[in-house]
Amino acid sequence: MSRYTSDEGIVLKTSEFGEIDRIVTLFTRKRGKFQAIAKGARKVGNRFGASLDFFSFSEFLFYTASGMPLIVQGKIQKLFRGLLRTPLQWMAGEYLLCVLDRVFPFERREEELLDEVLVLWEMFLRHEEAILPLLVRFRLDVARALGVFPELRECVRCRRKVTGTPCFFSIASGGVVCDSCGREAQRLFPLALRELEVLQALVDTPVGYGVKLPQGDRKAFEILDVLVAQYLSYQGERKIPDFSSFLGRELSW
Ligand SMILES: [Zn+2]
Predict the structure, then answer these.
(1) Overall domain count for the chain
(2) Is residue 52 part of a domain?
(3) What is the pLDDT of residues 165-194, one digit of tens each?
C-alpha cells in the first residue's frame, strides 16, 4: 500500500510544534477528524500557502510511515475568506470548527457534516440574519451524527405528544418532557411554547434553505442556543460554549 494518500477537508485547529512546524487538526472526507504534522508550516513563504488557514477547503496529500501523518501538500479548492468581513460572520464560521473540534470523536468519517460546514459558510456570507438559527440547527445535526438526536415531539417520560403547550427539556434524557411530567422532575430546562415551535420547525427545514428557517424571534433563538450548547456538552462529554458567549470572547487569531 502506498504511504501517500490524498483527501479533502478543512482545518479545525492548528497549534505550534517544535521550532517551525504545526500540528493541524483536520476534518476530511475520507477520514473525519484527525491530526497531522505540517513541517515547516511556520516558516514565511512555506509550501502550504493558505491551505492550512481557517475557512479554506483544500485537497491534501499525506505521507504516513509511523505515528502522525505528515501533510506533504495542500491545494486550495475553495476559500471562504469573505467570512472575515464582519465579526459575526467570522465568529459563526469559527464556531462550527470549535464544535467539531470539541465534541466530535476522532477517526469517524462524516461526509455530510463536512458538506454542511461548507454550505453554512456560504450561507453565513449571504444571510447574516440567519446565523443564529443555522447554528442551532448545525448542533442538532452534530447530535444526529453522534447518534444522540433529541426527541422533540413526544414526552420522554410518558410518551404523550408534546405540541401547543410550554414544556421542558431534559438534557440527561435527551428530549422534551411534558408539562405534567415536568412538574415533579428536577433540573429541567423550561421551554416556552414559541421556543418549542421554533425548535420543531428548525429540524423540519432542509439546511440548504436557511433563509426560510423560522426567524424574527431572537429571544427564542438565544434560549435555544444555550440549550443545544448544554445538550451537546453533556452528550459529547466536553464543554462547548453557547454562541453568545463565544461571540463575547476575544478573537483567537
Ligand atoms: Zn409526560
Answers:
(1) 2
(2) yes
(3) 899 999 999 999 999 999 877 789 999 999
CA distance 1 to 3: 6
CA of 11 to the centre of ligand 1 (A): 43
- For residues 121 and 59, membership in a common domain is answered with no
Segment 215-235, tens digit of pLDDT: 668 889 999 999 999 999 999
**Interval 1-18 mean pLDDT:** 93
* 241 shares a domain with 116: yes
Domain limits for position 142: 83-248
Contact present, 215 and 130 (Cβ < 8 Å): yes
Residues 68 and 94 in one domain: no
Q: How far is the CA of 47 from the centre of ligand 1 (A)?
A: 59
- Compute, in angstroms, the gap from residue 172 CA to the centroid of ligand 1: 15
CATH number at residue 240: 1.20.1440.120
DSSP code string of the chain: --SEEEEEEEEEEEEEETTTEEEEEEEETTTEEEEEEETTTTSTT-TTGGGGSTTEEEEEEEE-SSSSPEEEEEEEEEE-GGGGSSHHHHHHHHHHHHHHHHHSPBT---HHHHHHHHHHHHHHHH-GGGHHHHHHHHHHHHHHHTT-PPB-SB-TTT--B--SS-EEEETTTTEEE-HHHHHH-SS-EEE-HHHHHHHHHHHHS-GGGGGGS--S-HHHHHHHHHHHHHHHHHHHTS----HHHHHHS----
**How far is ligand 1, taken at its centre, from the CA of residue 236, in Å?**
26
Quick one: 68 and 119 in the same domain?
Answer: no
